[in-house]
Design goal:
Elements: E1 80-82, H1 96-106, H2 114-120, H3 130-141, E2 146-149, H4 157-170, E3 175-180, E4 197-206, E5 211-216, E6 223-228, H5 229-234, E7 236-241, E8 243-246
Antiparallel strand pairs: 1-4, 2-8, 3-4, 3-7, 4-5, 5-6
Protein name: Peptidase C39-like domain-containing protein
Keywords: Signal
Organism: Actinomadura verrucosospora
């Protein structure tokens, strides 16, 4: 599941922790959106928390564009749609990105295990960066004339819902979203460190109700959840959706 340096966007500064068991990196800036991402400060002990704290994908300071130009998102999307997925729970604390990626790729018709993806993405320590994950994902997506990218504006519920409506409602594909695990409603009592980055799957929506359906691969509190688009946007990493597009 989480870690806490994530995908594209900006966090002012981070402090590396001495979390040997989990490898989680905790932000001390208190600013999840401003400034440049980076690691700063001396190592310090984490506050007490549950023994099984998830880890995930370290934060990336810049978006990684797809290797091929994408088509305009002009197709019509229905008012609601849910992609059929095969849910998985991550086998290891830091495998949220490989697991979410495995679920997403299956909706592209690609069956690849989270273990294989973790190896190809070189997942280690606090998790997997976007720069590690995207080339692997796009190697599988390219033959399908699709491409993943990060860095799109999902700063409001309306903007996030528009992206989900295209990926789920038009392409009929699920994709990966970077969030802050400690801010997810279903983790309210888990005691995660502040700015715990995590990857989940977005695979459905209801535009009338302005809700989004997600799959959280962290078994303790995960599985299927429905959340308002506005709330999901508020707890998402800046630019942290792996937006799918058709390619030329």
């Amino acid at each position: 599941m989480p870690a806490s340096r994530w995908i594209a966007g900006g966090i002012a500064a981070f402090t590396a922790t001495a979390a040997v068991a989990t490898g989680i990196v905790v932000s001390t800036s208190g600013d999840r959106d401003g400034g440049r991402a980076g690691v700063a400060g001396a190592a310090q002990a984490l506050p007490s928390r549950p023994a099984a704290v998830p880890q995930g994908m370290p934060y990336e300071p810049a978006p990684v564009p797809p290797s091929r130009p994408t088509l305009q998102q002009t197709a019509f999307s229905p008012a609601s749609y849910t992609v059929k997925i095969t849910g998985q729970y991550q086998s290891r604390n830091n495998w949220c990105v490989p697991t979410s990626s495995s679920i997403s790729l299956r909706t592209l018709g690609v069956k690849v295990s989270q273990a294989t993806l973790a190896k190809k993405m070189r997942t280690a320590g606090p998790g997997t960066t976007a720069r590690q994950a995207l080339p692997v994902l796009n190697a599988y997506a390219k033959p399908k004339h699709l491409a993943y990218r990060t860095g799109d504006d999902i700063s409001t519920g309306t903007r996030l819902l528009a992206k989900v409506r295209y990926d789920a409602g038009v392409l009929h594909r699920a994709t990966v979203l970077g969030v802050w695990a400690d801010d997810l409603p279903w983790n309210a009592r888990q005691g995660f460190p502040n700015h715990t980055g995590h990857a989940i799957v977005v695979y459905g929506y209801n535009a009338t109700k302005k809700t989004i359906t997600v799959w959280d691969p962290w078994k303790a509190t995960g599985g299927k959840h429905t959340i308002s688009a506005a709330k999901l946007s508020a707890v998402s990493q800046k630019g942290g959706m792996f937006v799918l597009n058709r390619t030329l």
